[in-house]
Amino acid sequence: MVEHIPHTASRLDHIFHALADPTRRAMLNHLAMGERTVSELAEPFAMSLAGASKHIKALEAAGLVARQIRGRQHLCRLQPDRLAEAHEWLSFYERFWTERLDALDALLRQPEPVLPIETKGDDA
User: Fold this and answer.
1) Does the domain made of 7-81 have the CATH classification 2.60.40.2470?
2) Model confidence at 8: pLDDT above 70
3) Global pTM?
4) Is the pLDDT higher at 124 or at 121?
5) What is the pLDDT of residue 110?
6) Which long-range contacts (CB under 8 A, 24 or more apart) does 112-115 make?
7) Over the chain, what HEC string results?
8) At residue 6, does pLDDT exceed 60?
9) What is the pLDDT of residue 5?
10) Would you kindly state where each structural domain of the chain is located, as residue ranges?
11) Cα–chain-centroid distance for residue 93?
């Protein structure tokens, strides 16, 4: 049986899949500085244009990159909205753990209670 995955979860799956690869993350870093051609994105990795195109297609499928064709050039640009979705999802867990760690810190900073000292002659 196939489970129904909400649209947002499916998009996040694509985003995190795309971000899981270090080459694609590096390509996104290059695109953060402005539009780049597929050749420019491939160059730092000494990979073929076909190899770079596969990475770019994964980024496109996740909605992280938009590609525009101008003549023979394929220009890519960053689509920050999808990154914002991933950031929003991660922010929930950042808040979750920050609250829990703050509570633990508060507990650890409380002074230890002073317990009465028992002596051997206190039976009667």
Assistant:
1) no
2) no
3) 0.69
4) 121
5) 84
6) none
7) CCCCCCHHHHHHHHHHHHHCCHHHHHHHHHHCCCCEEHHHHHHHHCCCHHHHHHHHHHHHHCCCEEEEEECCEEEEEECHHHHHHHHHHHHHHHHHHHHHHHHHHHHHHCCCCCCCCCCCCCCC
8) no
9) 42
10) 7-81
11) 12
